[in-house]
Amino acid sequence: MEMITRNLKGIYTIWYRDLMRFLRDRARIIASLAQPLLFLFIFGQGLSPAISSLGGGNLNFTQFMFPGILAMTVLFTSIFSAVSIVWDREFGFLKEVMVAPVSRVAVAIGKIAGGSTIAIFQGLIIMILVPVLGIPLTFVQLVVLVGIMFLLAIVMSSLGILIAARQKTMEGFQMIMQFMVLPMFFLSGAFFPLNGVPIWMTWLSRFDPVTYGVDPLRQVALRESVSQQVLSALSIHPIAFDLMIMAVMGLIFLIPAVWLFSKQD
Amino acid sequence: MESIKVSKLLRKYGSFTAVKGIDFDVNEGEIFGFLGPNGAGKSTTISMLCTLLRPTSGDAVVNGYDIVTQPNEVRQSIGVIFQDPSLDERLTGRENLDFHAMIYNVPRKDYEERVDELLEMVELKEKAKDLVKTYSGGMRRRLEIARGLIHHPKVLFLDEPTIGLDPQTRNLIWEYLLRLREQKDVTMFMTTHYMDEAEHCDRIAVIDHGEIIALDTPDGLKNMMGGDIVTIKTSDNKAAAQKLENYKPIEMRIGPDGQLIVEVKHGDQFIPQMMNIMADTGNPIEVQSVNLSRPTLDDVFMKLTGRQIREEEANAAERMRSMSRSRGRR
Q: Which of B73, B102, B147 lies nearest to residue A13, judging by beta carbons?
């Protein structure tokens, strides 16, 4: 029983520190908002006139992109959170955590909790743009969107920890960012509908966890904006299916991540 | 009562055996030192005892808990001060301590007081609210020592506690540590390659190439050398030598400049007696100069290994380390 309290406290402590560091880092908060805003308003508005046939001409490209941008925020924040493990390893703080009487599992869970919380936080800030973009959303929809983002955050944080568990350097991690994270983002349907893309892309996107986050986010976010017909044309799987796949993928990442992290040298 | 019992502790990295099956005990309340050059196996040993590294074979019991089967209990009962920096620069000094208290499950009402007490002890109270990024190397070290003590550990592990610090700070740190020993009844296990630091230990294990080649008190080790060397210049060295025959020194000879070189057990006690012998009215001899040279641990190490531990010696790894350390420590 004491072990459980201690580990819960450990999870809380790790979560708390990550949150504190995030909230203190104004520069990072602003910078991480800049990216989605850039995409939405420059990229989105720029491409809008060119992509006028979306949804039978009823859907603004920026509106189409919005759920993808939510997913992007979650994706990048979650992975970045896991980077903090590599950072701590390189700058020495990880030793302090490793030598403490807290199980590695608790540390990994604390990191995932921290990363997910920060991702949601950032996602919520982006949600402020909803009225600006003219996307009608009910409160219930908002809550559901947050729920989906949270699940996606857990999945991506777990993936991040899996990568970070044995990474010794920041450079190595950056490489992985380029070769994994960006493709995951592009293939997820955030930018363009996946219906009708070449076969190879369809297949790749099936293995991309972010796809299963963007799809339900889009279906929920645009429910009031477009007709059911248009929405179906843009959707890939039923929401329940998406959520289930995310849960499964989350476990596939989480279990080895924690195991790798726990392996004592 | 032993705080630490080590039995045939062995660690291999691939085909390289860093620690070759060592045995030793550390008594409660003592300052125990591991003295040896870089690469001797000191850090590996301490990592194993702190449960950061699993031994390839062998055993150790720390505060009654087995390092392999009861790592969490070991961790709760020890404090560790690492060789390389381990603070979070982007938190304040106090926050670093709070974090430690929380993760070691110290109840809030206890730890606030404790953190204040320790900040006071290491004289960092005024800087407690500043980010660690602004601290100097010595201040960071002091903070790390304070941090290691928050949860009342029974054993404090210090891996090269004053490496990379200037002499003044080193002295300060040792003042704290010695004060600590008096007040707190904490056992300290320390690794070092500094001879003068090893002098503070109650007992020292000399380690080289993964093996303990000697284990004794600092004086005990120095006695291995035979004795102190007293060099005397008198008006008549030959007569002086004869007078001293009765004293039965370990060795006596005339040096290259005609000086009398006497090796005795306790040079500091020998000198006044020698002065009396020389002044004896039957045949007084004028003593012109006396020089006392005691064997140092450097000499001990040289005798045991045929090599010197040279503080200035820096192989590539050590140089890089001190570079990155100074990056981290301002």
A: B102
